[in-house]
Amino acid sequence: MSNQNVIAAEAQYRQALSLVSGARSQFFPQITANVSSTRSQNALTAEVSGATTGTGTNQATTPAQTRTSDRVSLSAAWELDVWGRIRRTVESDKAAAIASEGDLANALLSAQAMLVQSYLQLRATDTDLDLYEHSIVSYARALTITQNRYDAGVAQRTDVTQAQGQLESARAAAFDLAVTRHTLEHAIAVLIGRPPSELTIARTNTLPDVPETPALVPATLLERRPDIAAAERRAAAANAQIGVARAAYFPDLSLTGTGCYESNEFSTLFRVPNRFWSLGPNLAQTIFDAGAIHAQVKQNIAAYDFNVATIGKPSSRPSRTLKTTSRLSSCSRRSPKPR
């Protein structure tokens, strides 16, 4: 498939899956290694020596000191998801990824529907073109008969003119149908990813059989539409973002630890006296933000209401969304409720 809309939707789906993986990584500690070697030098220092004379004090300077510091350290930081910020972020990204999957299925379905429509129009054009070609032959024969009648003096000149008009009108219509057929043929070539010059579809005078559509279909069939499924998942993602914003009301708790070796000489770097470590919790809380967190919560609630309004009132039972295989099959698809 060379349809650019499908390619763009597929790229957005892969991007959404990457966001889910990135959000899940926050459940685990982040470990950082650092190796450094630094040389530093102090400014010249003055030392007082000798006695004080009438002209001042005799001074002597010492050269600048150069110091080398080698350091190897390993640090770890782990944010404890006490208030569910990370969990709700993962939930939001999962729902957004499934919505992106729905967009991909919808783009693919649209391209396939356009391909079917173009093919059916092509076959209908073939039938019309065949009809006009037979009509042109009949009109040409009628023009010949009318011309002979006019030459024999049993027909009027207006009859000949009318017969000529019918013939030329049929020829013009046949020409327009031929142009339409080439256009549809080129469209089909583009939809299947082939150059138009390499695709030739033979003409036929028969129309393909169209599957019968039942007169009544269950309302639950709407749940299988990829665009509706994507809209429902976007509402779930917006709902999870409310929880992410509300988690900012509470302090962030994290554990940090560092192990390090530091020495003036690399040969003695890993000796026990050059080792030190630190470990401890870190608690951070925003004291004053002029209502920024509250505004963010209200913004996310409004975004959730907007997404719900686009799909109607959420159902109270699980939504059967896509029939395609999803790499996020373990994700919950419950209808969103404001949190």
Work out the helix count.
5
Inertia-based shape: elongated
Largest sheet, strands/sense/barrel? 4 strands, antiparallel
Mean pLDDT: 83
Considering DSSP H and I runs of 4 or more, what fraction of the residues is helical? Answer: 40-55%
- β-sheet strand percentage: 15-25%
Q: Structural class of the helix and strand makeup?
A: alpha+beta
The counted number of beta strands is 6
Q: Which blocks of ≥5 consecutive residues have pLDDT under 50?
A: 45-49, 313-338
Strands side by side in the biggest sheet: 1-4-5-6
SSE sequence, one letter per element: HEEEEHHHEEH
Distance between the termini: 41 Å
- Rounded to the nearest angstrom, the radius of gyration is 40 Å
Jot down its keywords.
339 residues, alpha+beta, four-stranded antiparallel sheet, two-stranded antiparallel ribbon, 6 strands, elongated, disordered C terminus
Layout of helices and strands, plus pairs?
Blueprint lengths: L3 H21 L5 E12 L3 E9 L2 E7 L3 E15 L4 H67 L5 H35 L34 H21 L5 E12 L11 E10 L7 H20 L28
Antiparallel strand pairs: 1-4, 2-3, 4-5, 5-6
Helix pairs in contact: 1-2, 2-3, 2-4, 4-5
If you had to describe this structure to a student in words, what would you say it looks like?
With 339 residues, this protein is an alpha+beta fold. 48% of the residues lie in helices and 19% in strands. The protein contains 5 helices and 6 strands. The chain has helices at residues 4-24, 85-151, 157-191, 226-246, 292-311; strands spanning 30-41, 45-53, 56-62, 66-80, 252-263, 275-284. Strands 1-4-5-6 form a 4-stranded antiparallel beta sheet, with no helix packed on it. Strand 2 and strand 3 (56-62) form a beta hairpin. Helix 1 (4-24) runs antiparallel to helix 2, helix 2 runs antiparallel to helix 3 and helix 2 (85-151) packs antiparallel against helix 4. The longest helix has 67 residues, at 85-151. The chain is elongated and about 130 Å long. The two termini are 41 Å apart. Residues 45-49 and 313-338 have low confidence and may be disordered.
